[in-house]
Amino acid sequence: MHFDPRLLADARHVVVFTGAGVSAESGIATFRDKLTGLWERFDPAQLASAEGFRRDPALIWGWYEMRRAGIADARPNPAHLAIAELATRVPQLTLITQNVDDLHERAGSHDVIHLHGRLDAARCLACARSVSSALALPEGARDGKRIEPPRCAECDGPLRPGVVWFGESLPEQALSRAFLAAAECDLLLSVGTSGVVQPAALIPGVALEAGARVVHINPQVSGSGHAREFAIAGKAGEVLPRLLSEAFA
Ligand code: BV8
Ligand code: ZN
């Protein structure tokens, strides 16, 4: 069913819920993409796990530093910019992301809810002190070499990436803020997510249950046929700017 852009213009509280697809046009591989190079013999869920880190900290730290380098080299794309602009057009906007990159922040979005943590924030395995990794990218970061995780300045424990691994629970506060916003909004835009990873994947359903309209923006869309659920097939970097110009022209 066609989504009328005026519903965006008239929305009181919009939730934007993003996944890896919103960063795809910035050149950041999504999880569904075949992992290239050194990693093609691993599956991301195996690398993105505390078990994987315990087994081989240098391999996992090197994988994250390669991803951090890729993000540092990338730029926000028109989808990130349109979401930042939307926040200036509607009375209230809550941005919830599953992504661990900082492209929403670099596009000008504020108060982003990161359900799965952030790559630019490491923390000590021993004393849990968090180290905002203004950590310079080490030599070899870009080619995915194994890199020994740096040590904590306070207690000399090993640092770990500040992301939520499979099997780890999501940050309490972020998750409850996200559920609250989804239950309270009148429109939720779900952008670039395959809706596979739990419990983040529950967010659009919470909004739908609570009476909001839900719009999925994804090249591969599959709507549930619910009267208040819509799908716009396409790339976020093309669909979102068009949606905003139609809604606020
Ligand atoms: C937890 C940080 C337990 C790390 C990530 C069986 C059934 C149900 C659940 C489970 C199960 N077995 C295990 C679980 C739980 C597990 C889970 O959901 N597994 C999945 C694989 C089945 N979940 C967990 O482990 C979570 N924790 O449950 O803990 C617990 C409970 C209580 C107490 C203690 C413990 C933790 C999950 C968090 C994992 N960490 N990231 C890192 O990044 O390395 S998740 C990671 O994958 C990403 O962050 C991202 O969120 C996710 C991938 O999802 P998407 O964002 O959707 O990306 P994807 O590539 O899948 O899709 C991209 C989409 O974009 C596609 O649809 C594509 O078509 C589209 N697209 C492409 N280009 C574009 C585009 N769209 C728009 N424009 C484009 N240009
Ligand atoms: Zn420490």
Describe this structure in words.
The chain is α/β, with parallel strands linked by helices and 249 residues long. The protein has 2 domains: 1-27 and 75-116 and 169-249, Rossmann fold; 29-73 and 118-163, 2-Layer Sandwich (SIR2/SIRT2 'Small Domain'). It is 31% helix and 18% strand. The chain contains 9 helices and 9 strands. It has helices at residues 6-9, 44-47, 50-55, 57-73, 78-86, 103-106, 172-184, 203-209, 236-248, and strands spanning 13-18, 92-97, 113-114, 117-124, 130-132, 159-163, 187-191, 213-218, 229-233. A 6-stranded parallel beta sheet has the order 3-2-1-7-8-9, with helices on both faces. A 3-stranded antiparallel beta sheet has the order 5-4-6, with helices on one face. The longest helix is centred in the N-terminal third of the chain and has 17 residues, at 57-73. The protein is elongated, with a radius of gyration of 19 Å. It starts with 5 loop residues before the first helix and ends with a helix. The model has no long low-confidence stretch (mean pLDDT 93). The protein binds ligand BV8 and zinc ion (ZN). The site of ligand BV8 has 32 residues, from loops. Zinc ion (ZN) binds at residues 124, 126-127, 129, 152, 154-155, 157.
